[in-house]
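Bench notes, afternoon.
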Amino acid sequence: MTRTLHATPSLVDATAFAPPVIVGTSSEQALDILFQALLDVARRHDPDLEAVLHGTADISRFSPQMLARALQVQGIWFQLISIAEQNAAMRRRRHVERTEGRAALGGSFAKVFSDARKQGVPPEKIQALLSDLRIRPTLTAHPTEGKRVTVLEKFRRIYLVLRELEMPRWTDRERNGLMNELRDQIELVWMTGELHLEKATVEREVAWGLHFFDETLFEMLPETLETLHEALAETYPGTDFKVPPFFQFGSWIGGDRDGNPYVTATVTRQTLHRNALASLTRYRDGVRELGRTLSLTERSLPLPADFRAELDRQLAESGQARAITRRNPGEPYRQYLSCVLRKIEATIARNEGEHPSGPDYASADGLIEDLRTLERGLTEAKCGALARDLVRPVRRMVEIFRFSTVRLDLRENTTRTTDTLHALWRQRHGDGEPPALGSAAWRQWLDTELARPRDPERSFEDLPDAARETLATFALVAEMREALDREAFGAFVLSMTRSVEDVLGAYLLAKEAGVFLDSAGTEICPLPIVPLFETIDDLRAAPAIMRALLNVPVVRRSTRWQGGVQEVMIGYSDSNKDGGFVAANWELYKAQSKLTRLGEELGVGIAFFHGRGGSVSRGGVPTQKGIMAQPPGSIRGRFRTTEQGEVVSFKYANRGTAAYQMELLAASVFEHALAGDGERVGPGHDDALEALAGASRAAYVQLLQTDGLVDYFQAASPLDEISLLNIGSRPARRFGARSLSDLRAIPWVFAWSQNRHVITGWYGVGSGLASFIDVRGRDGEATLKRLFNESRVLRLVLDEVEKTLMMVDLDIARAYAGLVPDAGVRDRIFSMIEAEYALTREMVLRVSGGTELAERFPLFRDRLKGRLPTINQVSREQVELLARYRAETDEDRREAVKSALLLSINCIAVGFGATG
């Protein structure tokens, strides 16, 4: 077992600041401390596993039960390595900041603003960009997280204890106490187990998502905005910048109905209330702390007249003026905060279905204004530092998270929305079938229904259950925007969008459910309807669909009301599954470019919501590089992206890492906006990418259409067994069919990475490059080498292909292929994969000029090489476990093998740092 400390996973950017590598004694000690603590626990509970940790055990001879324990300890060790890597990355960043200044940290606010100042960017432009900035990472409940919340909490504590152990102030006695606590936490992880014992519920997924807000995000996101404020003050001294709450979090957890029958209107309602309670509880704690702290008396400073008047009004409104003033005599700020606290508690009671006796907050706006009043009162009393340092962080928190914690998106697919529309048609027209989709008659019916006044008395009781459920979900928007918070919802995302009629159908359902508002005598939809274009054909059709959509009056009115921006979601996962890595990336790039130009033509801002996953195959590239590789002008300060499973826990489980990741994302978006039409490449860029995409897609599709591929994939990977992991509430397939077309992209990627083929991140690339050079000769090769240095999108693609190729192991992949019973299918498909791998490796190195894979990424190489021996051993054991599990007929023995098999899946995923 390798015990060398390497860089943090580049896939999720813990090293994207790119400081010089500083691996000192304390960093090595950190890994040694963790290893020794794990070794102590292993000796206490299972001495035979000491050899496993040292890498000297022959685990192929283990029983299923013993093998399960060995796999568990290896998985824990991988997680401890990640903790040490995160800790080392934080140390490196702090070292650079101390020795060179914060502006030396690439991807920081200080660096972006310092560069802007050097380039002569005036503060007015900075303020204008700040005012338009909108950033929203969106947590999803896609089944990619293998760790339970209780285990996440224990790993979080291990990280904190490790950080404490670095402090030089401890006595030997205190240090021994910390070491004991570290061992205790590792022992608790050992005894708890990382696997979910039963299928996750949506309610548990909601709790999983809120865990990160409670642990880090409530506190660290306001600090991130303060960091931006400080960087601006240092770079542009004397300018009073206004920093709006531009960074917020979205969520699909509890609102994503697409293919998940467990997300109902009732579940969504419960989710909204739980989200609200999480933020309200945190505000209550913050205000209580302010009340304990702000013990200023009227004798010590004059009370501003305006604040006195507002305090008197609040006391009178509370109905408890005498009790409040008696409790805090002569302490006006505590009296004021007592009134605020009472209203927060009344709001919590209302959220929980009770009837508060005193006044409450109708929305977050009221609490924000009360906190602003407190800030003004302190500032006018010459206590501006207290207002800035104590009150402003709480006010920023409320501005960011409001009474909803997240902006909850609703998501549904067009199959369900169309079924509901058909049910409405039949209700109004009696017998017969609705017009065909895509027909002029269907479009006319949609236009007519959108134009006519809504009948508020119309009943949906006679509709089918599924249709009533869809309409009930839309009805929640109108209800909860009024009762909870106007920003409780983010958008309605329409999966599988194929036509403008699909989107207009969603508008009609929103209207029928009472979501529409009257604005200046006309109807508008306050809920953004966001089409999701997923496959390559969808991406190509997107510009025409959006042109037609944005010419519909109700859509144009709604878009103007929502801020003049139409959001479009683009899917990385399904486009990759559909056409391969190069083709997907190029089609995504083209679609964004065309839609950006369309928005400029129509005078409507087009903002993109990037449906990325954790792995490279699903768009999971380094944040800064990924953003800078977007088409010029396509971001303009507005950026949404999905954050899934293991990526969420890696980025946001610890406060330092969370602060870094949020700053990196925001600074990168700002940098792209400042660059404007920045990237300039020489001639032939688009033609070259078009040719590469076409040839690579042809090779990829040829593999997909090879007879027997589905049988090969199911037999030569743990595809079906992954569903036994209980890592998500959603089924692996949308509608229960067992074909390649309806298989979700996450298990598609997950299973190919488990069996070490990893075709989703490279297959077809070699054929594309070779075809380009074969057709164009030396000029073609020269063009590719030039574009490799000039084109951000091509460079990003080839960089990630090189990294992915390092995860492939053809010897191990051949062992998985041995599980395919049909020798003809096995040999035909594996030989295609083997040949394309060799070609891709050769061609990528030829274009990049390298001699070894990923030699430009030494941190990544070292990290992966340090883990591969163990990952490879687990992969070989997984092959044996798959064979035994599938052949075993005795139920008890089969269950024992299943436990070990699931641990092997979890262990490989932790080792690579990604699942789907």
